[in-house]
Each structure stands twice: as C-alpha cells, then as structure tokens.
Amino acid sequence: xxLMSQKKACLILFYFFISLFACAQDVxxxxxxxxxxxxxxxxxxxxSPHYAVTYKQKAVINPSQLGFILENKKSFNSDFAILGxxxxxxxxxxxxxxxxxxxxxxxxxxxxxxxQEKAALKRLLTIVxxxxxxxxxFRYEFPRQKNLKYFVVTDETTAFNLTGDHKTFWIPGxxxxxxxxxxxxxxxxxxxxxxxxxxxxxxxxxxxxxxxVQTPLMMKTADGLYINIHExxxxxxxxxxxxxxxxxxVLSSNLVPDAYGNKAYLxxxxxxxxxxxxxxxxxxxxxxxxxxxNLNEPSKIENPSWIQPMKxxxxxxxxxxxTGTWSYANSLDELSPSGALIPHNRHSANTxxxxxxxxxxxxxxxxxxxxxxxxxxxxxxxxxxxGKNFDFVTPYPDxxxxxxxxxxxQKGVQMIMHNETSGDAATYDQQMDTAFQLMNQFGYNSVKxxxxxxxxxxxxxxxxxxxxxxxxxxxxxxxxxxxMIDMHEPVRPTGLSRTYPNWLACEAARGNEFNAxxxxxxxxxxxxxxxxxxxGGPMDYTPGIFKLKGYAKGAPDRQMHSTLAKQLALxxxxxxxxxxxxxxxANYEAHMDAFQFIKDVAVxxxxxxxxxxxxxxxxxxxxKEKGKNNWFIGAVTxxxxxxxxxxxxxxxxxxxxxxxxxADAGNADWKNNPEAYKIEKFxxxxxxxxxxxxxxxxxxxxxxxPATEIDIKQLKTYKTNVK
Length: 723
Ligand code: NOJ
Ligand code: CA
What we know:
It contains 14 helices and 37 strands. The chain is α+β, with helices and mostly antiparallel strands. The longest helix has 23 residues.
C-alpha cells in the first residue's frame, strides 16, 4: 500500500516537474492540439517517452509511459533521445461504402516524434500522434534499420495514467471471449475473479490477469467527462487489454500472448495498431466519433458495387431455443447397415423447412436467409478441441443445396452461407478457397463464420496476433470471391471494415442469443454496447425477438430482458449494415403490425443524429435512410422507465411527414408484460418534439416518411407534449 502511494507521489512529482520544465524551456515537452484536445510528449530523465492529454485545459491522461520490452527482457522504452519531429495537418472528407453517415470528415494535426537510443545499438522508434477534435490516436512505427530487423515483442509498456477513480463499464480480460454482461464499477473495484461464473454458459474463461479488462473501455469521471479507450486497425498484432492498477488508476497495455507467452512477431519496417482515446463532456459525442474509422486505411476493394447491406432471417432461433437442432443424427457411432447417419428428425436445416423460410422472407421483402446446420459435423461440433470437424462443403442428406439454390433464386431471396469452424482456424485456412468456391457455385454472396471453442493452432487465442491475422485473411479471401462476411467470436473490431467493406459485421460481444440458451443480459446491456463493443464496428446483435417469454425448450421461465418495442428500437441503436430479423416466422405472424417496422427499416444511412445518450441508462438515435428522405428513430432505456424526448429539427423545413410510433403500451414492462405495445400514426414537421414513454427495460421505434395528400387529410397532427 505504502509502495503504491509512493509510486503515485513520484508520478505527481514527475507531472509537476514536466509542467515547470515546459514553462522554463520548451525542449523536452512537445505539444500539439486541436480544438479542446491537447497532447504533450516528453522524455523523462531516463530518456523514457511519455505522453499526456488534456481536454479544455483539464488533465485527462497524466504523463504516461510509452514503449516496449523486447525478447530476453530487453527494454525498448528508455535511453532515447529525440532525433527529429514532423508536423502536418490533414482535413479531408471521404465516403464509406456503407455506414452511419454518407461523408466522414478526417481532420487532425499530426505530430511525429523520431526517437533513437543513445547507447550502442542506437535503435530507432517513431511515435505518431494524431490529435483530433474528439481525442488522440497514436501508434508506434519501427523504421527499417540496421540493429532491429526481426524482433519479438514480449510487452508493450503503453500506459493510460488516469486522473481518478472513474466509473467504468467493463468486461473481464478474457483472451478468448467478449461474451459477457458489463459490470459498472469504479476502477478501484475492478476484479475479474469476483464475477459470478454462470454454469450454463459456454464461455471460455481464460482470464489470467485478475485485474485486466477489455477495450473499448468506457469511463466517466466524477465531473462528467466521458473517456473511451480502444484501438484502431488491429493488423499483425495481438489485441490490447488493459491492466487496471486499482490504487493509482493507471491502465497499462496487456497484449494477448501466444503459447510461448510472446505477444507479437514483427519485422521492420512495421507498426502497431493505433491506441485511441476519445474524450468529450457529452456522451453523444462518443457515439458520434469517427476517429477509429479515420485511423484505418481506405478501402482495398476497388469496385465495391457487389457489397450491399441487407436484412436477413435465419434458420437459427429455433436451434438457439432448443426446438430444432443443428445436428442431423444423435450419434456418429450408431450408423445404419449401409453406414449412413441415422436421422433423429429434429434437424432444422431440411429442404422443406428452408423453403418455408424462403417463402416468408420473399413475401415480406426480407433480402437474405441464413441457414445454420446445413453441413455435416454438428453431432460433435463443440468442446472437443479435436479439429477437422467441418469441411464446409458437404451438406446433410436432407439439405438439397441445388434445389434450394433454384427455389431461392426463383423467389428472389439471397441465401447466406454458414461456416462454423469450432475454433479450428487452421482447417478453415486450408479449406477457405474450397468453401468460397462452393458459395460462388450455389449463389451465396455472404457468409457467417464462427469460432466457438478453443483455437487450433492449439495455444493460440481468439484475440492474439495469429488470429487477428486469420480474420483478415478470411475477409480478404471472401473479397476475392465477392462474398460479404459476418464473423462470430472474432477479436473485437477496430474499424477494419473501412479497409475491407465486405466485412459487414461481427459478433465479438454478448449477443441477443444469450437470452435463448442462457440467462441473457440485464436491460441496461444495450445501453452500454454502443459505448463499448460497437465503437470498433457494427455488431450482428440479432434483434427482433417478438415472443419474449416461454420460447426456450426446457426452460419455461426464461425470458428476454426487453419489451417488444425495444426489440424494434435495436435496429437503430445497434448499428449494423447487416441486421437479422432473428425470430421465427410464426412469432412475426402473431404481430404483423409491429413486424411492419422491421420490413420498413433501412440498413444503410446518409445521416445519423445521436439525440440523447448516457452509458448504462439510455440511448436515442435518429438515422436518415441512404438516398431517401425517410428517417428512423430508436430509443432504448435500461431497467428504468423514462420519457424520451425526440426533437425532429433535422426534417426538411416546411415539409410534412408521417411518423409511425411503435411504443411500449402504458402497462408494458420487460419483466411482467413485455409484449404490450401500441402503434400510432401522426403528421409531423420539423417543429415537433416527440415525447415517448419507454417502459422499464423498454424502448420505442419510429419511422418517418414524407406524407401524401391523403395522409395529410386522414391523420392527426402530432402535438408536442402529447404522450
Ligand atoms: C455461436 C454464434 O454466435 C451463433 O450465432 C451460432 O448459431 C452458433 N455459434 C453456432 O455456430
Ligand atoms: Ca457467439
């Protein structure tokens, strides 16, 4: 304890010294700023690089260590002198292939610091800082040089020395899973090992550091500043977790290791991903930040016309809830006299069932259909770490791939392929060409991949360097075959969908599916995910569950932690260019009026307005459909009811629109009455402020389209303050 406070005292002294030094002579403190953000770089008396960040002149990151430890415990974080500095300003606008907005401004001041070791080896290290109006991104570059060519990073010593015991929304530092509910606590209370172990959850639980948390890490200071720490462009490097020093509030980089405990194998010239710190005194600004996308490379796909956001259904929820199965037979050991699998007749991916889903999707204009469990291997797919379980090309006998191709083409429904690897990325690497050729042959233009279970090559982790590269290999290979990709159980995204826009979505968090096979997550979950997991990119959260209780076979008490109206709101608040209508057709047929919102809602946007937001409490977002004058609004709350206040100032002035409001009914409540909703239509203008009551654990969705003359005659005008 004494030691900790001594350390803190030293840091304070160092900071004091730095400020004095900065005033006295501008030698060792170099600054760069933009708007409210100021970045300082300095070398301490040991030649160790440090940086600090302020927002509106207040410290956000106190002087914090930079650098590395290389193989054989050789430090590469001290004994430096500054060799040179460079500055530049960039202010450009680019258009994403798809996204939340049509144009993205990339405006930053860049400060590049070239360092050289003073002692014998004289190795070079460059640190590039990009200072944005909403924070700072920085990365390390290793220039081509004589005394550093092939090298192994055994630790990165980047730290984030925070100014206090901030409120933090965290999940534990698991090397293999992000599928946790969030804990909200002070930094001093972070403790992975105190989290309850939930027995029926298939989580991997590999959390060697009791005090490590995942990024994106969302924090709020006592005086109302929001700070988000993550990374951008995770390429050829392990993902960064943060070790929390619970006494001094210093976060330090904890890279995910390989089987040898090494972190990264690099060759010069090369660089690390960007470390990102997004800062604002408004929570909405965190959600609106485009810094992570801006720090990624532009698209590598020259003609992306084949990449199209879409909504899809799936032969999926019936397996998740236990009414159907992925598998075809009970056992691989009991075969018919001719050596064939003996069907147990509960297999969901059979041709007749697939056709029923195709019919439903075609009737309601849902573009895509995912079918899981179509290929052999599901009898023993999970938990054996044995490898070579799936070949990704052999259908079960009752799945007629040719017949389904013909039928789906005829009905205009786009089939979505499923490649579950069971964590055997090594086999997937070998089989990818074959798998993508099959997709091309039978008209599948997208694939959902999955990495459930422990990774093969054994000793690798989902979030380590080898797997980070594997996910990119899969995205690149998919692009070669003009296939869009959605990855489940990958490392959490870092904005790489800018570079590979066919990489539409990822799971990499605890999705809606946990409500099917396990306890699920509390109602606040969806008010936290946009501030954490979604900072790095779209999530395939699988919204749209309409039967909210009594859907799980063998678990009659299981229920969603949501109202039906909130399920609609998620299509807006959980951004993804790929959105699933996740429930089964029968449950939609029971609520066709509410299903209309899912039919109407867009998946690609020209504009986005974050209307209200507070992590852990509520989020309201309005989005404008790409190329159209339609707006869609989603509002979600945590376990507390609230009155959402939604101004419509962004609608065209002088124009009348029809607003269809899908809201919780007055007596709705996620626990006791989740399926109670009401739908109302009004004429609105940009002067209206919608006041919508959200139930406990509830939400609301609104579609707004230009009004016709008939609408104007028939519908009432919305009166602000009408509830
Ligand atoms: C886990 C995925 O998240 C889920 O969506 C999928 O159905 C199963 N794995 C089987 O691949
Ligand atoms: Ca999953």
